[in-house]
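Q: Hi! First time asking for a complex rather than a single chain. Here are the components, and I think there are two in total. Is that enough to go on?
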Amino acid sequence: MVSDIVVLRYGHRTVRDYRVTSHCALVARAFGAGAIVICGAKDPEIKKSVDAVTTRWGGPFRIRFAEQWKKEMEKLKKKGYTLVHLTMYGSAVEKAEGEIRKHKKVCVIIGSQKVARGVYELADYNVGVTQQPHSEIAALAVFLDRIQAGKELSKGFKGAERKIAPKKRGKSVIALK
Amino acid sequence: MVSDIVVLRYGHRTVRDYRVTSHCALVARAFGAGAIVICGAKDPEIKKSVDAVTTRWGGPFRIRFAEQWKKEMEKLKKKGYTLVHLTMYGSAVEKAEGEIRKHKKVCVIIGSQKVARGVYELADYNVGVTQQPHSEIAALAVFLDRIQAGKELSKGFKGAERKIAPKKRGKSVIALK
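A: Yes, that's all I need. Here is the structure of the assembled complex.
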């Protein structure tokens, strides 16, 4: 059963990628990953806003930047993570997920711009969430939902200042601190 | 069984929202919706790039702009669509999806900026994909995957110029025209 997830974002350009990379980080956190490593331009604004979400809504969740994707992938592999690269060219997720679920530690790699060939080669699995062009944010969310069989949807977060009480209409936020 | 899906994007600002709205449109198409209606600034660039994807990778998929979200929601309701608004404040998706799946025609509303109160009130369901802040792109994809029980993942597209042959490593694209 997957119980330790790290997301590796391949590529980030300051300003231009701000919103998309932020969405990736927030999806990683909300769907049960413990950390995101962003291999690209160091962007303190993103870190600040994601950390603010973690403070407010709970954790643990870490965000950090790295310069070299290859080094990071190798490091994570050495630490026992199974590397899964999400790409529309990869094996269909509905066929691959059963096998991937058996691993405890999974690192999910998502690209932004074109991804170097080495990523495909270093990855243990190249997996396509549909074989259509769409969004790495969507691919990440659906993949995390599937490899955890939906358990992440009711995950509790620690140290949160607030949480939501689900409602059929309107908004209800409970202050915890 | 859900067999007719329209996505309504609430809000769009030219330039600023270009990438996020594009991702929403591409996710709608890739995950089985037949159309997206964007209620916000008319943005010919988005239409052009999404239409180009549909030409290349197949359809049918329509993208259009509308000025008034309320009129659109009411029109879709009249046409028999069940309106589902995705919001972190709503009922948990894992509890709501069983009931929603029984409907044939579903319109999924996703916000960008703050959504007017009227959206919550007009919607037949307000549904949260997790009760955490993340991304409307992710929420849309996971929701569409769940209400179609994964069937959309192997959806065939008509009139495509090319398609992908899934591969464990590397890329394989088949020209169809």
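A: Strands of chain A lie at 4-10, 35-39, 62-66, 82-92, 105-111, 125-128, 162-164, 173-175. Let me know if you'd like any chain examined more closely.
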